[in-house]
Design goal:
By secondary structure, the protein is mainly β. It is built from two helices and five strands, in the order E-H-E-E-E-E-H.
Length: 74
Amino acid sequence: GEYVSVSTSSVKTDAGQTVVPFIDIVPVEPKKCTPLSGFGLFLKRNEGNAGYLTLKLISYDFEPNMGKSNESLI
């Protein structure tokens, strides 16, 4: 995995009063009710800025079990 350092902004530009990268607080939810296999943090970033940390949901992948009989799943 990768690591993201959270620090303050430049002391020269705004006296270090902003935490960077910013933390995105927009609600994250699946479009349909579905089981989740995990979640994590994702860094959205553009050239020239510190970016945003946001929550990432990982839905369960049913594809490996498609077409199998019930006996093979037990």
